[in-house]
Design a protein that fits this description.
The chain has about 180 residues and is mostly beta strands. The protein is built from 3 helices and 12 strands. It binds flavin mononucleotide (FMN).
């Protein structure tokens, strides 16, 4: 069910700027549709559950491809590598022919798989929920590949970033419980 619009208690642009202080990776989610392959750049990806293996992302209700995403039983989530900025821009352009001249392979269920990602998760739809002006998709991971030698592309303050310094190991990681 869609959340009814209510007067914002604060400035939406200022809120956006606040949210952009939170760095994320960048993913491209792909799926098959009646009209051919669909794909979109997203930064709303996150892990949700280990058992069962669930991940999530959200799509703007204004996206032209939203009906196709709502109908998609399967998808693939590609965690982009540092070398894939152009691909991220390509899949963020509405109306563009995102697939023109692009090499990709297709799984038996029709899901397109792109090459060069830092990780790929093949998923089946678990649930879709109202997320205000977005729709929240929860996906169950059925298969995944990790390319540890590739560094992930980062996104923060409206710009792409590369991981700069060597990481410092988090003392308490991994915890028995999540995080
Ligand atoms: C770095 C980055 C992250 C994005 N993250 C999201 C997201 O999480 N959800 C979303 O709906 N759109 C996101 N977008 C915008 C969509 O990629 C863009 O609006 C989409 O490709 C339009 O698709 P359409 O052709 O279906 O309208 C993001 C764009 C960029 C550049």
């Amino acid at each position: 069910m869609k959340t009814p619009a209510s007067p914002s208690p604060f400035d939406a642009m200022a809120f956006r700027k606040c949210l952009s202080q939170f760095p994320t990776g960048v993913c491209i989610v792909t799926a098959a549709s009646d009209a051919g392959p669909i794909g979109m750049t997203i930064s709303s990806f996150n892990s949700l559950s280990l058992t069962p293996p669930l991940v999530l992302f959200s799509i703007d209700r204004r996206a032209q491809s939203l009906p196709a995403w709502e109908a998609a039983a399967n998808c693939a989530i590609h965690v982009l590598s540092q070398e894939q900025r152009d691909l991220s821009n390509r899949f963020a352009r509405p109306d563009a022919n995102k697939w023109e001249g692009l090499n990709f392979r297709t799984q038996d269920n029709g899901t397109p798989i792109l090459s060069g990602a830092a990780a790929v998760m093949e998923c089946q739809r678990h649930a879709a929920h109202d997320g205000g002006d977005h729709v929240l998709f929860i996906e169950r991971v059925s298969r995944f590949q990790t390319f540890g030698e590739r560094k992930p592309l980062m996104f923060c303050q409206g710009s792409y970033h590369a991981l700069g310094t060597e990481g410092v190991h988090a003392e308490l990681w991994p915890l028995d419980i999540h995080y």
